[in-house]
Design brief:
Blueprint (H helix, E strand, L loop, with lengths): L2 E8 L2 E8 L2 E9 L9 E10 L4 E5 L6 E4 L24 H4 L5 E8 L8 E3 L4 E2 L3 E5 L4 E3 L6 H14 L4 E5 L8 H24 L4 E4 L4 H9 L6 E4 L2 H14 L7 E3 L6 H4 L2 H7 L4 E3 L5 E6 L3 E7 L9 H23 L3 E6 L6 H15 L6 E3 L8 E5 L6 H5 L15 H19 L4 E5 L1 H8 L12 E5 L8 E5 L6 H6 L1
Parallel strand pairs: 1-14, 6-8, 11-12, 14-15, 18-19, 22-23
Antiparallel strand pairs: 1-2, 2-3, 4-5, 4-7, 4-13, 5-6, 7-8, 9-10, 10-12, 16-17, 17-18, 19-21, 20-21, 22-24
Helix pairs in contact: 4-5, 8-9, 11-12
Length: about 500
């Protein structure tokens, strides 16, 4: 499989696309107006302590206070008089450990989304290319994906030589065959970063961000650009140089894989990415055989439905259904990564009678999702024929990143029908008829509602009111105004109050 990273840089937005065999599978966007907070470290102030929830709310300088659970506490980062208090197993003891006004150092583990504030932890870690640096801990943990016992022993021996006694380390996956020099180089860089953070912990006035790890070039090298990537192409000379500079210490062997895009056409157009991005915001995704999948997304639940569409297949109905479901399983796995869907996903595959066919569909779904870097779990078919997937969220999905709630439908995706709006206006007139029966009025409505009323000229006839109708496209679809033609008074504001 040929893997590429394509980077598009704009003054207000940076986008990173990951291609597998020229197929878009992941997309990341860094908007100037939408700061990414996950991984950032803050010196905050305890605002509220809730023993019943085993939690506290921390002011870290954002619009909403952050949520800290008792199990995420670490006494090393509780500043002040309570620092040496031992943490017990009962979460209601949080009131004995924390108090309002106290200073505390926390790291964002989940960014704010919707009305929810950020989720934070005191168990601080600083991720690098090969290692995760954990101050005030001693354990060396190795990625489960490194399965060789010999390699695990080799890595553990090296890291105990390299690290300080009061530092814990996690070895990331892409570290096999790294030398002691490679690890020492990165460890020293992480240790320097930690010393700077400690200085900020001591002198910064809370609430304050004391470490921001979300610079694009840094996260790109740490999380995405590895030996499995054959090529990285970027259309900005300055960003390319930043990546090269950061790679000199972390992974110099990757520098030769970086290219500067200098053609006239936009880079995402040249690689066919822009067209694929447009489909992310469509609920329907077409399948190669003529079937389709339909994706409906809410904040914590995603429903996915599969249809055969125009695909009629061969004479064997079961094989037709299986082919559609197999295509859907592959595409669903790709869409989950591409849209960064999370929470609980429920998939309604087309019913299959044979258990072997169900296993084949599950196998495709699971194997394709193995490429996903986010933690996920695929459950077997339920008695109702549904497949559930759980996937961990670390950031807002692309739908939330690139869109905002519709002011007309409030996010439901549905609007009152035109006739329902007209009936609503009629009922309003009935309520206030006694007060305005002799007043000529102007009814202002959305253009679509006006079109309906023009097609039904007798709609308000029985009310016996002298009225005219005017369209206003700035008006919400289900809203209306009634203006007195005598004195231009807004009658809806007067009689709705």
């Amino acid at each position: 499989m040929y893997n590429e990273i394509i980077i598009n840089v704009h003054p207000f937005e940076k986008r990173v696309a990951i291609l597998e065999d020229n197929k878009l599978v992941e997309l990341f966007a860094e908007k100037k107006a939408q700061e990414i907070l996950v991984g950032n470290i803050y010196k905050g102030i305890v605002k509220n302590v809730l023993p019943g929830m085993g939690a506290a709310f921390i002011d870290i300088g954002l619009d909403r206070t952050a949520f800290l659970h008792y199990r995420d506490l670490d006494s090393n980062f509780i500043l002040g008089s309570n620092k040496k208090v031992k943490l017990g197993g009962n979460s209601s003891n949080i009131a004995k450990v924390l108090s309002p006004g106290q200073e505390i150092v926390v790291q964002v583990k989940k960014g704010p989304i919707g009305k929810k504030g950020a989720r934070v932890t005191c168990k601080i870690s600083i991720p690098g290319k090969f290692l995760v640096f954990m101050p005030h801990r001693k354990k060396v943990a190795i990625s489960r994906k490194i399965s060789s016992a010999q390699e695990r022993d080799r890595l553990r021996t090296i890291l105990h030589k390299v690290k300080d006694k009061n530092v814990g380390l996690i070895v990331r996956t892409d570290t096999e065959n790294n030398t002691e020099e490679d690890f020492a180089l990165e460890y020293n860089g992480l240790a320097k970063t930690w010393k700077l953070i400690e200085k900020q912990m001591k002198y910064s006035k809370p609430p304050a961000c004391i470490y921001d790890e979300n610079d694009l070039s840094y996260t790109l090298i740490r999380d995405l650009f590895s030996t499995s990537i054959d090529r990285l192409v970027v259309d900005d000379k300055q960003v390319k140089q930043q990546i090269v500079n950061n790679l000199k210490d972390a992974a110099p062997e990757l520098i030769d894989r970086i290219e500067l895009y200098q053609e006239d056409s936009p880079i995402f157009d040249a690689y066919g990415i822009e067209k694929e991005i447009e489909t992310i915001f469509h609920s329907r995704v077409n399948l190669p055989s003529g079937g389709n999948i339909n994706i409906q997304q809410t904040e914590a639940l995603v429903a996915i439905d599969i249809n055969t569409g125009s695909f009629t297949g061969s004479k064997n109905y079961e094989q037709t259904i299986k082919k559609t479901n197999l295509e859907a399983a592959y595409e669903i796995a790709r869409q989950i990564r591409l849209r960064d869907l999370s929470g609980i996903m429920v998939i309604d595959f087309i019913d299959m009678k044979e258990e072997k066919n169900k296993e084949d569909v599950l196998s495709v779904l699971r194997n394709t999702l193995k490429r996903d870097r986010a933690k996920n779990r695929v459950f077997p078919f339920s008695p109702l024929g549904l497949v559930e997937i759980s996937r961990k969220r670390t950031r807002a999905s692309l739908l939330l990143t690139y869109s905002e709630q519709c002011p007309h439908c409030n996010g439901t995706g549905r609007l009152l029908s035109r006739d329902s709006v007209a009936v609503r206006i009629s009922r309003w007139f009935r309520r206030v008829h006694y007060f305005i029966e002799k007043t000529p009025v102007l009814v202002v409505v959305h253009p679509n509602v006006k079109k309906f009323l023009q097609g039904h000229p007798d709609f308000f006839k029985e009310l016996q009111i002298n009225l005219k109708i005017k369209a206003d496209s700035s008006l919400a679809y289900d809203d209306f105004k009634v203006i007195s033609l005598k004195d231009k008074q807004d009658l809806t504001a007067k009689y709705n109050s």
